[in-house]
# Entry
Amino acid sequence: MSWQGYVDTNLVGTGKVTTAAIIGLKGGVWASSNGFNVSAEEQQSIIRGLDDPAPLQASGVYVNGKKYLTLQANPRSIYGKAA
# Structure
């Protein structure tokens, strides 16, 4: 299965996730839900948050120009909820 298939089927397709993106550790969007765009600046903020989640936990994470409250951040994943 491709990363896009994973986003479409295993994440958004469950109905429990409304939008998702998979970003490479060196930048670049590998897959995202339809219309869910992640700018280069947003990608870098997310990548930095994997090493040091404190700023994302304090101020939230921005994706697709929208602020999300950080629910969980670890070295593999960041989960957010619309603010």
Remarks:
- Residues 40-51 form the longest helix (12 residues).
- The radius of gyration is 12 Å.
- DSSP finds three helices and five strands in the chain.
